[in-house]
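dumping this here before i forget
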Amino acid sequence: MDGLDDSSLSKLPSILKLRDAMYSARFREYLSSVTGSGKLSGQKTDMAINVYNEGCHLLCHDDVIGSRRVSYILYLTDPDTPWQEQWGGALRLYPTTTEKDAQGEDVKIPSPDYSLSIPPAFNQLSFFTVQPGESFHDVEEVYHPGDEEDKSKKRVRMAISGWFHIPQEGEDGYEEGLEEKLAERSSLAQLQGRGDIYDLPQPQPVPWEEPEVDGKGKGKVEEQVEGNEFTEADLDFLVKYIAPSYLTPDIAEEMSDAFSSESSLSLERFLHEKFASKVSTFIEEQEKKALPSSSEEIKSQTEWTVARPPHKHRYLYQQPGSNDPQNPIQELLNVLFPSQPFRKWLSLVTGVDHLTSHNLLARRFRRGADYTLASGYDAEEPRLEFTLCLTPSSGWEKEVEGEEEEEDAENGETKPKPKEQPKEQTNGDAAEHPSLGGYEIYMAGDEEEDEEEDEENADQVLRPKEKKKADPAIYRSAGADEDDGILFSTQAGWNRLSIVLRDSGTLKFVKYVSAAAKGDRWDITGDIGVQFEDGDDDGDDEDQDDEDMDDEGEDEDDDDQDEE
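structure:
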């Protein structure tokens, strides 16, 4: 979305006249009467010219920042080419229901489904009162033309938008402290500090169960758990799901070394080809079936539930429980990822011995609909997080020229080389290859870090660098000489596992999936509780884990191998 700020308006005399007319006492009185909002400030003006090109959108929010009281949009689309509803770009309003929060106070819960859609039209003025926790709205994506449509005519949603504010000090109707009261109930405040018991999904952490071992004594069981030893049965189980190359001691050691250095891993072609083929076939069949339009119908007619509230996230999800043998997604949720063999493997490749619990979720991000906004993590202990991306459709990222697969001559298995990050698109590329979104990003938050703590825990976890606090109402992109705060990034893709050790203060989000994508984004995520003990030595633990695998008849390779 491109825009002109208020300082630029002074260079445009006709726009300046429009601003003066809109903020005149007569028009403010009219607007206040129509909306019932109360008196509006003529001293504080707030307007800009915004241009939404194809692919642009605005996610759900309630507009409550500072002293805003009425939001407005004056559309300036091409008068000679009437805007078509199917082009998108509509202002969409979301209804709310009133519930009780944890303190017994009323709280507004927005629906994940919009109730009113207002397409743009030339010289049309749309406006609404800004109500904390209630005036939720978004701007629908401006859709790219389809394959059979004329791509030479660009869809440009231009508008003048802005806000009328509450009276400022010295103006008629000024109320001292009102701005602070409004801020306390804003959606931004909810994101920063108000946990909501009505959010979906709710976390369901499950403690790791101790393995059941028939015909073996208690001492042997304890030895296996404490040492994360692999049995032959463990490896036989894992090889049904995981590519054999990731189960060999030399590759495990390489992964452990890389994770120790970077606090993250990205593994291509993680699932065994046979099982991966089963997953791919299942997902492709699911995408051929049309989903119901409303969240209630989706819940009642499918195995999915819609995540909410939309000012935090929206996507389809499944949690463990329904172990349908015909559904390989559920098989991963219920069989592989909660298993002791997978716990041992995860401990081995990360060097983190004590994995205490798992919280698993399958997600489906619908194109043209779904996303997660940046969410923080503020627990004292770091945690492991993994995402197995299972998106079979193409076009999410450009293939890197010269990328090849390595073949292991010993067992005939292919081992993919690490993928490079796709190059940034030029303006010409963007028209032919529009950004599809769907990527997952970890980035530094704005909170200041304690310097002594940073030094003590250096290189242990994926942690944000120290940044100065900024006004949350201002979006500021990084300049050429600035750090953009991105710690780890992975594109949507097929059969890719990412693992991150996430520290307090690190933000995470999944970018909105564009309607231009060829398919939905599918993945399975896991939040793994960890426990660090004083005196733990990661290097010694990794060496012990490698010896455990060697005891099962594998040969050890002594060669060490040492994103948005």
